[in-house]
């Protein structure tokens, strides 16, 4: 009964959404699941166990808009089909040909998690990252549109993208290259500009996920996206959301937007289960303690064992929800794959519907082609037996050096664990209040030999430097270092910088915790200069010399006090007369009440005397 | 509020602490390599990113045989969901300050590390560090963290050093240590936080080695005792070595990087259980973790009177200003010829006091020459001690000879005025002016050195200005009349006298609290008892006692290289040159008055 009702609702939805729905409208309801109405939309979930009982959940969504003309000869109402109606007008009004947005948080543990999913193409650094390809006559025009774009997206995604300004925007050279086919197929009328900015400070939270899900045709109500809730996604060990929109064209009149949305997250299975079972942490009860039997253990002593290796959990334990049916409007059924070592893991579906499993790329996959609820169960006694993880081709980290208030340094550690030489780009954007000195750039090879950038030997490692100088309050420093990193080699790059003083009003309030420096992007390039793998370091926290702002107020108060005291004294000196004690006594005596009375008395006496004299005269 | 969250570091967590402790007791005497491997494997089992750092000691510690590299194992817990920019550090050195094995400290740190990993509240990374000792090795690690370590966890906000040497389950009270080198202190908020949490968990907190029996006293006398101990402790932070390969209090190691550091030392063996201490540490970490902002910049200058009472800089700085001013007054007084005892003291008139160019220039030149020589001497000592001779059993004799040689030479030089008395020469007005310039200018220089030091390192400036005060009493005139007094003043104000005295003092088990009790609750039999027990039992033939000045000199001279401690630089750049200038002043026979009688007479007429 419920299912039928759902179908009705779905049918109604389709009517609203699609143009061509008319021809299918009369199809009997029971046949709807088998009909061929389909929209250019695909979704795919991959689950992959990692080291130390972690689990990668990779949600991928892809959709296309209907076709449109790049430069329409006349204005016509537009339809976008499954592509979001919210984004289309923004892209058109700002002539954005490509848009990439990343929301990420937390530290990626390459040792346990292996390579970044999709070679890091869909993973950002901590915070929000945005880059776009914008068409415009001049750079100024493109920048204007960029700000417009950022402001529109800010409202859409509940992120502080409106804080993007010229002081945080760069024009990348070697990285973030456009991929749209519009570049090849359509003769463009204006120039293209690639702009990029990042907001490392932005905390990623539920309010960013909700609009993200709203862009999906099923809006998180059906399909794999029905698993996603804020408190599970953001309670993960690491998470990254991405949106990539490109303009694909056959010729200038047949173009469409292609949008890829992805959420990659890593969950720690035992921790997630524990949080479900005991939301308030408690000490492990005595009978559940897992002690190392080879060492001393009794009722009081226990040497803890490592992580448990027998796991039995469902998707609903990890996500708190089940999959509410497949996304039936997609051109291919929603697919869920488990990338597990089948010798040690059992994966089964729990659903009223019949689910066929099949093997694809050595993964166990399921198609969700009904509206029934689906759940997956994972069981293993040896959770440490997983498929061999791909090791990342590069390991990189960045730290701050030094302790001074007015200067400091960065060091970037790069390690090539592979047996091939790599050509690497390190992309750094530093805010204007960091003033780097490139002449202090040094390279240490394998921790032994150090070269300065001016040395001839350094040219073996640093092949090219692209550097745009910062301008106070207007432009960040933009540094791209092209390096060749020999096999099995550690490189340590260091450079020094000065910290600028800010203007009075530019300082954040006293209760701040420093200035975040956006992550450096490290990428490996192929010989044809295409990005093979990319990763981000973590953000860095910089403290600037902060004056004690309460001091001026203290000084003002102190000086005011002194001045008022001084004023009192000076005023007294000016207005009062200094007299000797004798004079004062005389004066005092004059002003005493007794004296006044006497004076009064004598006056009255005088008065009477006068009268007497007058009468005397008359007499 | 700190310590408000209910902590579950109790019950079965105690079993884990005991489990780790059993293993540590079994392996505490293993080689350094094995111990570090063991703790490293435990940490990575728990889920920390473990790295190892090899501290190359600039000069080895006295008991850490030879030049072996010291290992530091540290684990970073990158907080999930956190932005990986800030870190809190928990340090458990293998040896405590007193050179004992830090068994419970290590076990509790491991237990806490494991426990922290289970909590999901962290927004800052947690770094657990296990250095060999809390001074040189830890310092090298902190230095490397800020210059070349590969594995880092962001800016370090706070550090807690944990020392708990016993292997029992209980402890009586907590001792809090916080003094860093060069007068650098942790933010008072952190100290208040730790005190509040400890008291909330039922511990008494002791600052500056206050013994258990005195922790309930909070009157004028107990506060002034703590104040004095605090001033002494801050002035000597980083100078004193732990015995048997232990280190300093750990706070010294983090000085200079704006890391708020406190050392928590568990004392006693009965009373509260070890997990209670664990809960104190957890609450301190939670408090720092919950900070959304930096520690406030105006809570770094204070003196503690009791764990919960402090004096702020505005109230205590005038004390150092006054002592420094006494030198300025003395300098001025000397310039006005008051130090020349030939002068008629009352009849001063600025117009008749002459100052010629020759004595002015030569006086300044001699002052500069002396200062320069002393600076060269100080730097040479640093070079000698830090590069040329290892400080170990082998070269103990060399150090002994150098130290006592210097002390003897210095004390011997005090008596030179007796020698110069033997030479007869004609005293002139020029000579008198020269002495006057040398005397006044050197005192003036010392005043400014004190004032420059005062704001940064109140305690050092204050203490040195008090012990150097006799320099202002030195007068010149006919040597027969001045020598004996001057020799006394010079002896009292000599840096090497104080090196000798403080060196011996450090090796004696002196407690100011005991003295306070004797005075405050005076009873003669008690005094006699204490005197018999404490003073008469001192073994003067003990070599360790006489090594006191040697240890102190070593700590002073190498302080700059090891911990960036300026004390030796201040001594050789300011105190010693002025002392020598004063010595020169008191060696010269001045028999003429600055005021020419005839001029004075003319004026009077």
From TrEMBL, chain A:
Keyword field contains Transmembrane: yes
The keyword Membrane is assigned to this record: yes
GO biological process: attachment of GPI anchor to protein
GO CC annotation terms, alphabetical: GPI-anchor transamidase complex
A Pfam family matched in the record: Gpi16
Keyword set, alphabetical order: Membrane, Signal, Transmembrane, Transmembrane helix
Transmembrane segments: 551-574
Signal sequence range: 1-18
Superkingdom in the source lineage: Eukaryota
Protein name: GPI transamidase component GPI16
Automatic annotation (TrEMBL), chain B:
Transmembrane segments: 316-337, 358-386, 398-420, 441-467, 487-506, 566-585
A GO cellular-component term linked to this record: GPI-anchor transamidase complex
InterPro entries associated with the record: Gaa1 (IPR007246)
One GO process term, biological-process aspect: attachment of GPI anchor to protein
Top-level taxon of origin: Eukaryota
Keywords: Membrane, Transmembrane, Transmembrane helix
Segment forming the signal sequence: none
Protein's UniProt name: GPI transamidase component GAA1
Gene source species: [Candida] arabinofermentans NRRL YB-2248
């Amino acid at each position: 009964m419920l299912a039928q009702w759902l179908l009705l609702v779905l049918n109604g939805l389709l009517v609203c959404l699609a143009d061509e729905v008319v021809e299918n409208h009369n199809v009997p309801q029971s046949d709807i699941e088998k009909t061929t109405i389909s929209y250019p939309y695909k979704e795919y979930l991959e689950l992959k166990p990692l080291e130390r009982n972690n689990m990668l959940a990779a949600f991928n969504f892809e959709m296309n808009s209907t076709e449109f003309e790049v430069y329409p000869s006349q204005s016509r109402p537009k339809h976008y089909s499954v592509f979001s109606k919210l984004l289309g007008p923004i892209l058109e009004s700002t002539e954005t040909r490509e848009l990439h947005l990343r929301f990420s948080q937390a530290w990626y543990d390459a040792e346990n998690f292996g390579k970044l999913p999709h070679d890091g193409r869909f993973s950002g650094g901590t915070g929000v990252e945005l880059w776009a390809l914008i068409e415009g006559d001049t750079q100024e025009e493109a920048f204007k549109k960029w700000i417009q774009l950022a402001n529109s997206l800010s409202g859409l995604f509940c992120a502080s993208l409106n804080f993007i300004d010229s002081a945080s925007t760069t024009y990348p050279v070697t990285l973030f290259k456009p991929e749209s086919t519009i570049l090849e197929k359509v003769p463009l009328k204006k120039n293209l500009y690639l702009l990029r900015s990042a907001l490392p400070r932005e905390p990623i939270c539920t309010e960013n996920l909700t609009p993200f899900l709203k862009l999906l045709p099923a809006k998180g109500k059906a399909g794999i996206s029905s698993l996603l809730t804020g408190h599970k996604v953001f309670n993960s060990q690491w998470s990254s959301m991405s949106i990539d929109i490109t303009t694909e064209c056959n010729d200038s009149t047949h173009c469409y937007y292609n949008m890829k949305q992805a959420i990659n997250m890593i969950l720690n299975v035992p921790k997630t289960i524990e949080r479900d079972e005991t939301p308030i942490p408690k000490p492990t009860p005595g009978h559940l303690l897992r002690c190392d039997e080879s060492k001393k253990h009794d009722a009081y002593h226990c040497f803890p064992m490592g992580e448990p290796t027998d796991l039995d959990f469902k998707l609903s334990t990890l996500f708190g929800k089940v999959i509410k049916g497949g996304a039936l409007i997609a051109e291919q059924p929603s697919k869920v794959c488990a990338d597990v070592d089948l010798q040690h893991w059992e994966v089964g579906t729990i659903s009223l519907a019949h689910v066929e499993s099949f093997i694809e790329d050595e993964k166990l996959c399921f198609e969700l082609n009904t509206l029934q609820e689906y759940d997956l169960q994972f069981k293993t006694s040896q959770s440490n037996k997983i498929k061999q993880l791909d090791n990342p081709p590069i390991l990189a980290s960045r730290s701050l050096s030094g302790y001074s208030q007015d200067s400091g340094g960065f060091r970037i550690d790069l390690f090539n664990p592979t047996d091939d030489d790599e050509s690497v780009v390190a992309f750094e954007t530093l805010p204007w209040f960091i003033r780097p000195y490139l002449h202090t750039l040094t390279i240490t090879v394998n921790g032994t030999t150090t070269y300065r950038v001016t040395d001839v030997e350094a040219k073996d490692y640093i092949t090219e430097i692209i550097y745009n100088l910062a301008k106070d309050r207007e432009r960040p420093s933009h540094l791209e270092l092209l390096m060749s990193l020999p096999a099995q080699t550690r490189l340590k790059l260091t450079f020094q910088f000065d910290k600028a003083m800010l203007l009075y009003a530019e300082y954040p309030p006293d209760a701040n915790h420093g200035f975040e420096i956006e992550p450096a992007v490290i990428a490996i390039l192929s010989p044809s200069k295409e990005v093979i793998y990319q990763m981000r370091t973590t953000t860095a926290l910089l403290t600037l010399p902060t004056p004690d702002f309460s001091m001026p107020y203290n000084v003002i108060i102190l000086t005011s006090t002194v001045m008022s005291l001084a004023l009192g004294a000076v005023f007294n000196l000016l207005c009062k007369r200094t007299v000797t004690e004798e004079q004062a006594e005389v004066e005092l005596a004059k002003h005493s009440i007794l004296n006044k009375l006497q004076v009064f008395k004598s006056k009255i006496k005088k008065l009477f005397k006068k009268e007497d004299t007058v009468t005397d005269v008359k007499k | 509020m700190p310590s408000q969250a209910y902590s579950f570091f109790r019950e079965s967590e105690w079993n884990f602490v005991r489990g780790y402790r059993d293993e540590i007791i079994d392996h505490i005497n293993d080689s350094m390599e094995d111990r570090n491997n063991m703790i490293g494997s435990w940490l990575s089992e728990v889920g920390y990113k473990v790295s190892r750092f090899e501290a190359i000691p600039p000069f080895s510690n006295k008991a850490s045989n030879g030049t072996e590299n010291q290992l530091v194992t540290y684990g970073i817990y990158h907080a999930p969901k956190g932005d990986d920019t800030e870190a809190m550090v928990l340090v458990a050195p293998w040896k405590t300050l007193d050179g004992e094995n830090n068994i419970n400290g290590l076990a509790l740190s491991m237990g806490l590390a494991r426990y922290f990993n289970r909590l999901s509240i962290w927004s800052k990374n947690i770094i657990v560090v296990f250095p060999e000792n809390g001074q040189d090795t830890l310092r090298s690690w902190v230095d490397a963290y800020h210059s070349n370590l590969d594995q880092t966890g962001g800016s370090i906000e706070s550090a807690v050093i944990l020392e708990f040497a016993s292997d029992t389950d209980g402890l009586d009270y907590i001792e809090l240590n916080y003094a860093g080198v060069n007068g650098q202190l942790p933010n008072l908020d952190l100290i208040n936080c730790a005190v509040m949490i400890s008291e909330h968990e039922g511990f008494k907190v002791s600052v500056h080695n206050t013994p258990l029996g005195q922790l309930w006293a909070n009157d004028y006398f107990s506060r002034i005792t703590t104040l004095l101990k605090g001033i002494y402790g801050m002035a000597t932070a980083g100078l004193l070595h732990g015995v048997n390969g232990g280190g300093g209090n750990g706070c010294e190691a983090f000085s200079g990087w704006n890391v708020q550091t406190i050392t928590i030392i568990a004392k006693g063996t009965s009373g509260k259980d070890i997990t209670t201490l664990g809960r104190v540490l957890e609450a301190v970490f939670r408090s720092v973790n919950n900070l959304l902002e930096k520690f406030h910049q105006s809570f770094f200058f204070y003196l503690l009177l009791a764990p919960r009472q402090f004096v702020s800089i505005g109230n205590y700085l005038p004390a150092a200003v006054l002592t420094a001013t006494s030198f300025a007054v003395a300098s001025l007084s000397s310039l006005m010829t008051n130090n020349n005892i030939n002068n008629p003291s009352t009849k001063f008139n600025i117009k008749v006091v002459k100052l010629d160019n020759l004595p002015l220039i030569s006086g300044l030149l001699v002052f500069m020459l002396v200062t320069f020589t002393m600076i060269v001497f100080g730097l040479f000592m640093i070079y000698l001690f830090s590069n040329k001779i290892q400080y170990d059993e082998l070269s103990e004799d060399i150090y002994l000879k150098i130290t006592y040689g210097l002390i003897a030479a210095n004390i011997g030089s005090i008596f030179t005025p007796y020698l110069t008395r033997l030479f007869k020469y004609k005293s002139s007005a020029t000579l008198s002016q020269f002495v006057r310039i040398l005397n006044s200018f050197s005192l003036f220089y010392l005043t400014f050195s004190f004032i420059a030091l005062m704001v940064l390192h109140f305690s050092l400036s204050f203490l040195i200005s008090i012990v150097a005060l006799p320099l202002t009493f030195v007068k010149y005139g006919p040597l027969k009349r001045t020598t004996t007094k001057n020799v006394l003043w010079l002896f009292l104000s000599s840096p090497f006298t104080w090196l000798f005295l403080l060196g011996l003092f450090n090796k004696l088990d002196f407690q100011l609290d005991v003295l306070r009790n004797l005075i405050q609750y005076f009873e003669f039999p008690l005094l006699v008892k204490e005197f018999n027990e404490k003073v008469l039992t001192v073994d003067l033939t003990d070599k360790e006692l006489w090594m006191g000045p040697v240890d102190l000199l070593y700590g002073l001279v190498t302080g700059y290289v090891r911990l960036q401690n300026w004390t030796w630089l201040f001594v050789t750049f300011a105190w010693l040159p002025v002392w020598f200038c004063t010595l020169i002043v008191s060696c010269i026979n001045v028999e003429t008055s600055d005021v020419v009688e005839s001029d004075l007479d003319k004026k009077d007429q």
